[in-house]
Design brief:
Largest sheet: 4 strands, mixed
Distance between the termini: 53 Å
Strand content: 5-15%
Number of helices: 22
Bound molecules: coenzyme A
Helix content: 40-55%
Length: about 525
């Protein structure tokens, strides 16, 4: 401690010497150095002065943009003139002033001389253990914009209306690839070759079958609740039974191979569980997986009892691909929080299903379709929508925490809906236009546009998926995202344990005797 006080300074936490780069070198050279030195950033230096910083996050951005790293220069992609911090500044102070910018690596500069690099993670560790009067970092309600982890699975760029899985545009994947390919990409980090695809499909197939002990219990679960008991709640219950039956244990006590096998099994069996429960609820016999059908076609087959039309199977497959992952959404974050405790994969998935069931997250597509029905005809749209917003209701299928422009999934699904045709498409398009106008006028500045759920309902309805199965269908693809995040979180884990700002009556107050 430099001044005799107990507050550690940046100098005590920083790493030195710093791994540096130059503006003129290629991205490939800088990336190779990051890998070799096992660091998350290079400070770009000219004449001994830091002029920029290039981080792992930039490398993901670069990969997503498809830049040629053997030619592109560091100067084109670095963040120029990065904020820096002086070595003598107390760690907590540096943390508080820098966290608001979302930086993760900050050059430490003495005068004009680069003397070290400090990561936000180091600062945060110190800032949090200090007895502070107020929380170390005040974050916005709902954690909006707060970066809580590093991930290489994917990301969402809300202002651009873009999201990606690994380094690929997710919409392009949905246009060009199969669900199994994208599943493989998320689990393995690369797209499969034809041979790898076939092997993966063969690996997955046996796991689609429901274990017999659980299968025998399904009729009892399907009989619980009323006739409209949500299939997602039944999935939560039966999947939890399966995790017990198959002895899923805390991953901290098991091997990676076991955890991966559980992840594959979970993703493979969820569609079978969902469709079996749905059929039982309606007095129908469950249908076993079809040995020759790929994921999406098999899902419709197990639900509807007949091999679906190829155009319907493909439309549902594209929807499923587009909803596999989407940044740190509430259910994914839930899965990661549970995983961070070392708990079993089953617990993480059960928690994620619970989070997804809320209307603000996954529960909207049937409500969006219900809104179309309630409006009925184009001429009634405007008064209906105005009344709803005036009452303070939310228009289902509009608004998004991250997208402040068109949700690319809704754009793709609108295209699919148009391709499939059907009675609801024209009405949906007219209502969409009106809703955006009404929201822009009555909720100015909130940037409310169509989200994934608006056309998801229209597409699934056209493909014969009943409304009660809309959110469950979403769950059947998102489980691939959740389990990918479980695998990632467990590979580099730290317990996720934030703080809250206590806002009640000041403690300690005397505990009254019982009157
Ligand atoms: C998705 C959603 C939960 C994001 O919420 P959020 O980022 O927390 O946004 P907020 O709740 O802070 O809303 C900001 C403002 O926009 C308004 N708003 C947001 N979505 C709205 C909608 N669909 N209809 C009407 N107003 C909406 C809110 O009323 C609020 O207005 P205010 O400033 O006058 O209070 C929200 O847009 C929503 O409820 N949409 C409808 C449900 C839906 O489609 N869910 C599926 C999501 S993929």
């Amino acid at each position: 401690m430099t001044d005799g006080s107990s507050a550690p300074t940046v100098a005590e936490l920083m790493s030195a010497p710093v791994v540096t780069g130059t503006p003129d070198e290629t991205l490939a050279e800088a990336a190779a150095r990051m890998r070799e030195k096992r660091v998350g950033s290079v400070v770009v230096v000219q004449d001994d002065k830091p002029v920029g910083i290039l981080t792992e996050r930039d490398m993901i951005r670069i990969a997503a943009a498809g830049a040629d790293t053997s030619r592109a220069r560091v100067s084109e992609w670095m963040t120029p003139n990065p904020d820096s911090v002086a070595p003598g500044v107390p760690a907590a102070e540096a943390f508080a002033s820098l966290s608001e910018h979302g930086y993760r690596h900050i050059p430490v500069v003495d005068g004009t001389q680069l003397v070290g690099l400090v990561s936000m993670r180091d600062l945060m560790r110190i800032a949090q253990v200090q007895p502070v009067e107020r929380p170390a970092a005040e974050v916005p309600k709902g954690l909006e914009g707060v970066v809580v982890a590093d991930t290489t699975i994917g990301d969402v760029r809300g202002l651009e209306g873009f999201y990606h899985y690994r380094q690929y545009n997710a919409i392009e994947l949905a246009e060009k690839r199969t669900l199994e390919d994208v599943w493989y990409l998320l689990f393995e980090g690369e797209l499969p070759s034809l041979r790898q695809r076939d092997e993966f499909i063969d690996d997955v197939k046996p796991w689609r079958t429901i274990p017999i002990e659980v299968k025998e219990l399904l009729p009892q679960v399907a009989a619980l609740g009323g006739p409209d008991a949500p299939p997602l709640d039944m999935l939560r219950t039966t999947y939890s039974m399966m995790a017990v039956d198959l002895d899923y244990r805390p991953w901290l006590d098991g091997s990676r191979a076991e955890l991966r096998a559980q992840a594959i099994q979970t993703c493979a069996v969820v569609p079978t569980l969902l469709t079996a429960l749905y059929r039982l609820k309606h007095g129908l016999e469950p249908i076993d997986p079809h040995p020759d059908l790929p994921y999406a076609a098999n899902y419709l087959y197990m639900m509807q009892g007949e091999v679906p039309k190829p155009e319907y199977a493909r439309a549902v497959e594209q929807y499923l691909i587009s909803t596999i992952d989407h940044g740190f959404n509430a259910s994914t974050f839930t899965a990661r929080v549970i995983t961070s405790t070392g708990a079993d994969l089953g617990s993480a998935v059960v928690g994620a299903i619970g989070a997804l069931s809320g209307p603000l997250h996954g529960g909207a597509p049937s409500r969006a379709l219900a809104m179309l029905d309630a409006i009925g005809t184009e001429d009634k749209a405007e008064p209906w929508l105005r009344d709803a917003v005036e009452r303070g209701d939310r228009l289902m299928g509009f608004g998004h925490r991250v997208y402040k422009t068109d949700d690319p999934r809704s754009t793709m699904l609108r295209g699919i809906a148009e391709r499939l045709g059907g009675p609801k498409v024209d009405l949906a398009k007219a209502i969409e236009r009106k809703a955006i106008e009404v929201l822009a006028e009555m909720k100015p500045g909130r940037q409310l546009y169509t989200n994934v759920e608006f056309y998801a309902g229209v597409v699934m309805d056209t493909c014969g998926v009943p409304r009660e199965m809309f959110t469950p269908t979403f769950a059947s693809s998102r489980v691939i995202g959740w389990t990918s995040h479980v695998l990632e979180q467990s590979a580099d884990n730290r317990l996720i344990r934030p703080s809250a700002h206590y806002a009640g009556p000041p403690p300690p107050q005397p505990v009254p005797d019982v009157a």
